[in-house]
Write a structure and sequence with these properties.
The chain has 217 residues and is an alpha+beta fold. The chain has one domain. It is built from three helices and twelve strands. The strands form three sheets. The protein has an eight-stranded antiparallel β-sheet with strand order 5-6-7-8-12-11-10-9. Strands 1-2 form a two-stranded antiparallel sheet. A two-stranded antiparallel sheet has the order 3-4. Strand 11 and strand 12 form a beta hairpin. The longest helix has 19 residues.
Length: 217
C-alpha cells in the first residue's frame, strides 16, 4: 500500500513539473549595455565624419596660426602649421581642435582638444583637467551629457612628498561610446578625460600596456 502511495506522489510531481523549463538566472548587478544617449561633445560627434575646417594661418614671415580664432577648427598637433599653404583634410591623423574662448570647457586646462581621426571619422577626444580641484565639476559635466557613470573606482594617489590622497576613476560604457575619466593622472593637479569609440579605446589600452612593458624591461 505504501508503495502505491509513493508511486502516486511521484506521478503527481511529474505531471506538475512536466513542460516547465527553469528560467535563466540573471545576476542582479548585470545591466544590458545600451547605445550612448549622446555621442557629441560640444561641436564634435564621436564616430562621425570630421568636418571642421583648418584654422586660419599666416604664411609670412613664418607659418603660424592666427590667434583668437572665433570658430571651431583644427590645427597641427604641434600647434604650428607645417606650411602656409592649405593643408589637406585629416584622414588618418592626430589633430588639435581649437575651441572659441566662449565655448571653452571651464574644467579643461588644455589649449585644445587632442583628437584622433581614422578614415576621416573622429575616433577619440582627449583633454586634461585641473586634477583634484575639478573632480566634482568634471563628473557633473560628463553626467549631464552621458548619464551616471557605469562604474567608479576609488584609488589612492600620492603627492610629490609621498602623502596619500583618495581619488576616483570614472567610466561610462555604451555599445558605441566609452568615456574614461582619471581625476588624477600622474599628478594631483592633472586629470585626463578620454571620449572615444570602443575600437579606439581598445587600441589605446593595448598601446598603454605595450608602453608599460617597454618601461619595465
Amino acid at each position: 500500500m505504501k508503495l502505491l502511495q509513493l508511486l502516486a506522489v511521484l506521478l503527481l510531481l511529474c505531471c506538475v513539473g512536466y513542460g516547465q523549463v527553469p528560467k535563466k538566472q540573471v545576476p542582479k548587478n548585470h545591466a544590458r549595455i545600451k547605445p550612448a544617449p549622446n555621442k557629441k561633445f560640444f561641436a564634435l560627434s564621436i564616430g562621425g565624419a570630421f568636418n571642421l575646417p583648418e584654422c586660419l594661418k599666416r604664411a609670412q614671415p613664418t607659418p603660424m596660426y592666427v590667434p583668437g580664432e572665433p570658430h571651431w577648427c583644427w590645427k597641427d598637433p604641434s600647434g604650428t602649421p607645417k606650411s602656409g599653404d592649405p593643408a589637406p583634410s585629416p584622414v588618418n591623423d592626430d589633430v588639435l581642435v581649437h575651441f572659441p574662448p566662449d565655448d571653452a570647457p571651464v574644467y579643461s586646462i588644455s589649449s585644445g582638444l587632442s583628437c584622433r581621426i581614422e578614415n576621416a571619422k573622429l575616433q577619440r577626444i582627449t583633454f586634461h583637467t585641473n586634477g583634484t580641484r575639478a573632480t566634482n565639476e568634471v563628473i557633473e559635466a560628463l553626467t549631464s551629457l552621458y548619464g551616471k557613470p557605469t562604474k567608479q573606482e576609488p584609488v589612492t594617489v600620492e603627492n610629490n612628498v609621498g602623502d596619500a590622497f583618495q581619488s576616483v576613476n570614472s567610466f561610462w560604457q555604451f555599445t558605441d561610446l566609452m568615456i574614461d575619466y582619471r581625476a588624477v593622472d600622474g599628478d594631483l593637479s592633472l586629470g585626463t578625460v578620454w571620449i572615444e569609440t570602443p575600437a579606439a579605446r581598445k587600441a589605446r589600452i593595448e598601446a598603454e600596456k605595450k608602453t608599460q612593458v617597454e618601461k619595465d624591461k
